[in-house]
Q: What sequence folds into this?
């Protein structure tokens, strides 16, 4: 009997050594192949997948011609950065759901089957089956999970607000690129016509030089003007190509995709812009303070931080746990093969209390810091609004001046053509007048871009979506509209009323102006010099 036991023991040791050796060989083989990756083939596969996802090689049907509204709509839907942020928002939604599921109690199931070749104890069978089903609920963990779930839900709202702001900035970039390309195309057409006309003058001047009826210097001067016009046309062509490539990128399209832009009348667009004298900076300030997505994001972030302070406070309490378990064991020596237990326990890490207390104080200070940061944001938005209004006023005035200069240049060119037709003006002087007209045109077009961009920046500064850019400022009811857009439904009740109270509290209670209604008056065109005392 003793020899048989020794042989069984030796056999068990041999089996253990064999299993250990085989496992080691498998592990060693896996490690040797760990870094054997064909990176070139992997890059080719990933590149083909990325290009297929981008769809650059596919023929895409775009509206012909492409209007500004079409470009913005395509960009908001197809822009890659917007798609990435949409995916991040979806991830936050899933994270919020996972945090909610963490609130569930613990339910564990365990099953074991074992067999032995010898009896280890007189009250055990050679084979046994055991099963356990246990349920536990920790009140402290449930409270912390509830707070974490609420924080995760608020973070999803932060993502939504950030996407709203991202869409506003994207619309601004698309509008700038669109108008830059449209105006460059219109300017290029006119320059091409003038260039062809000047080239006719050059041919005529060369004939006169051959007939010795014109000084060669005059012919060279005309030729120089042609080169200058060609350089200008080349620069405009580069601007058109660059603006279209930028517009394609913003719309999430490939740079090789061709499209035709709608030839919109810039004058009709500019005439629809509000007159600077009709703007009330204080009213625009109120709109921005009620509609900017950053304020909603700051309010939500503060709510998240307040929950973090609550979690730090709750973690100092002892944990109370209720448990219930069912057991099953096939051991024939047991009195009962099936039984259950239940009970409660309380645990507390006493030595971690000092750390938890300091952490709670830190989280409370962080809440106060975020409140100051929100105040800083409020002050910054107020300044941004006034700067945006000032910039629009200046750019609008500059555009009017350069537009008047272009009209004068057009009149001079028209009168010069009449004098040239009568033989009272030389070809060289005529080409000089044409070049002056081109310069005035380009300067005017630059100011068009500036004034449109300044006005759109003002709208984005106010926190307005592209769909609301055409609304008169007097029709914007920020308190009513912001309950639906862009404020997400979850935060509309929490934030709107709070923001209104904060704005009321921010009104100065000291240093009141001599005239009670002076701050509500409309500001004149050159308001920056007259608003030094308004903040």
A:
């Amino acid at each position: 009997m003793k020899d048989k036991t020794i042989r069984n023991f030796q056999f068990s040791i041999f089996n253990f050594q064999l299993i250990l050796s085989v496992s080691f060989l498998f592990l060693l083989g896996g490690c040797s192949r760990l870094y054997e990756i064909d990176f070139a083939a992997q890059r080719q596969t990933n590149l083909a997948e990325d290009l297929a996802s981008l769809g650059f090689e596919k023929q895409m049907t775009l509206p012909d011609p492409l209007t500004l509204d079409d470009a913005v709509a395509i960009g908001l839907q197809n822009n890659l950065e917007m798609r990435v942020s949409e995916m991040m928002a979806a991830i936050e939604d899933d994270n919020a759901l996972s945090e909610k599921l963490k609130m569930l109690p613990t339910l564990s199931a365990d099953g074991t089957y074992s067999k032995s070749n010898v009896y280890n104890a007189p009250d055990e069978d050679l084979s046994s089956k055991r099963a356990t089903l246990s349920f536990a609920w920790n009140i402290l963990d449930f409270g912390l999970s509830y707070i974490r779930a609420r924080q995760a839900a608020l973070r999803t709202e932060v993502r939504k607000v950030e996407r709203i702001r991202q869409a506003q900035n994207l619309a601004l970039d698309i509008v700038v690129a669109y108008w830059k390309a449209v105006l460059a195309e219109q300017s290029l057409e006119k320059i091409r016509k003038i260039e062809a006309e000047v080239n006719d003058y050059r041919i005529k001047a060369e004939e006169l030089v051959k007939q010795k009826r014109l000084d060669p210097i005059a012919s060279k001067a005309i030729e120089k003007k042609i080169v200058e016009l060609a350089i200008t046309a080349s620069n405009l062509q580069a601007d058109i190509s660059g603006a279209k490539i930028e517009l394609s990128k913003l719309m999430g399209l490939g740079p090789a995709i061709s499209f035709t832009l709608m030839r919109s009348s810039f004058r009709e667009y500019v005439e629809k812009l509000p007159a600077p004298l009709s703007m009330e900076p204080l009213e625009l300030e109120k709109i921005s303070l009620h509609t900017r997505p950053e304020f909603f994001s700051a309010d939500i972030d503060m709510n998240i931080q307040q929950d973090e302070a609550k979690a730090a406070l709750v973690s100092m309490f002892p944990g109370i746990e209720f448990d219930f378990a069912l057991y099953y064991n096939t051991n024939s020596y047991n009195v009962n093969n099936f039984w259950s237990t239940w009970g409660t326990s309380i645990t507390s890490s006493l030595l971690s209390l000092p750390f938890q207390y300091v952490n709670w104080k830190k989280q409370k200070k962080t809440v106060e810091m975020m409140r100051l940061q929100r105040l800083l944001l409020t002050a910054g938005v107020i300044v941004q609004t006034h700067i945006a209004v000032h910039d629009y006023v200046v750019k609008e005035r500059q555009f009017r001046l350069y537009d008047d200069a272009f009209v004068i240049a057009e009149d001079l060119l028209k009168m010069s053509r009449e004098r040239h037709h009568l033989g009272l003006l030389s070809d060289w002087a005529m080409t000089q007048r044409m070049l002056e007209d081109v310069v005035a045109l380009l300067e005017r077009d630059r100011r068009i871009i500036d004034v449109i961009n300044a006005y759109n920046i003002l709208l984005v500064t106010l926190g307005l979506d592209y769909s609301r850019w055409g609304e008169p400022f007097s029709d914007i009811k920020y308190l009513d509209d912001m309950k639906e857009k862009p404020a997400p439904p979850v935060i509309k009740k929490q934030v709107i009323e709070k923001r209104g109270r904060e704005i009321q509290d921010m009104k100065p209670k000291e240093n009141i102006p001599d005239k009670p209604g002076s701050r509500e008056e409309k500001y004149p065109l050159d308001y920056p010099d007259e608003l030094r005392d308004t903040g």
